[in-house]
Amino acid sequence: MNRPRITVIGSINMDLVTEADRRPGAGETILGKQFSTIPGGKGANQAVSAARLGGEVTMIGCVGEDAFGKELLNHLEAEGIIIDNVEPVTHSQTGIAAITLAEGDNSIIVVPGANDALTEEKILRYEKIIADSDAVLLQLEIPMPTVIRAAAMAHKHGVKVILNPAPFQKLPEELINDADVITPNEHEYEELMKNYSADPDTLKEKLVITKGGDGTVFYDKGKEIHVPGYQVDVTDTTGAGDSFNGALAVQMAKGASLEESIRYANAVGALSVTKFGAQSGMPKADDVHNFVTGSDPRICG
Predict the structure, then answer these.
(1) Do residues 77 and 69 make contact, with C-beta atoms less than 8 angstroms apart?
(2) Does residue 298 fall inside a structural domain?
(3) Which stretches make up the Carbohydrate kinase PfkB domain (predicted)?
(4) Sequence-ordered list of residues with C-beta below 8 angstroms from that of 88, at least 6 positions apart, any chain
């Protein structure tokens, strides 16, 4: 069987991660426990997730011509991701995310940098790649006109469009119409519904709402369906949603039903939080198989 072809169009960042027992208050300085530089960016994270799960992944994005950019390109290539269409740009630094890990959760500030150079005009060059894909995976750490154009291209060619609306922005109706599946978390879902003026029931039919350890909700002909999650010991939640989205794209590209795809993606998301780092915690297909068949000890009672 051919590997599912996933094109990820999105951000490529270096994550600058600080661990501490708690977050400092305004004007306060505290001592942290550890600092790390880790490959990240929602687009790159989702590409790594899909590649580790067996997808033939093409990444479309931009990095700066700096040390972070070169390191990130080498990393993506080592993960088996096709990087021919990741463009180094001279006028901007590679994007970064400043992440604080404290009290069992994360806080993140993203500086897009070179990601903003992935313009709508550049996407026009990649229509054949998009058309030849089984699924296109999009997020919102690149310019919104680029996301809209990419979704429209994929929709035109009958390619599945999975849109992860993070970090949240108001979604234009044309983008909602071109997306097959939209994957907000609970906060993004609330914002999405507040900012949507058309028929909410029509929108809900496209939604896959992730709720962490509580699982995932989707709608089928108006009926809310809950797909249970997994209870695991949490080490780091960074990248859990990206792990989920990469897995969802792979399964949908294979032709699995939406419920089957979500069930698999829930397992991938659960596994990802048992290890440190957005990408380093992402499982491979064999890991997922062992987890769901009960031969992996990380499921809590």
Answers:
(1) no
(2) no
(3) 5-284
(4) 62, 63, 64, 65, 69, 73, 114
Q: Is there a contact between 267 and 282 (Cβ–Cβ < 8 Å)? A: no
The verdict on whether residue 191 carries a ligand-binding annotation is: no
Q: What is the CATH number of the domain that holds 224?
A: 3.40.1190.20
Report the SS3 class of residue 66: coil
pLDDT number for residue 39:
93
Number of domains present in the structure of the chain: 1
- Give the pLDDT confidence of 205-221 residue by residue, as tens digits: 999 999 988 999 999 98
* Catalytic residue ranges: 242
218 in a structural domain:
yes
Q: Which residue has the tokens 């991701």?
A: 81
Residue 211 annotated as lining a ligand binding site: yes
- Residue 245 known to bind ligand: no
The domain in which residue 65 lies consists of: 5-20+35-292
Q: Which stretch of DSSP H or E encloses residue 19?
A: strand 13-19
* Residues contacting residue 159 through CB under 8 Å, at least 6 positions apart: 130, 131, 133, 134, 135, 136
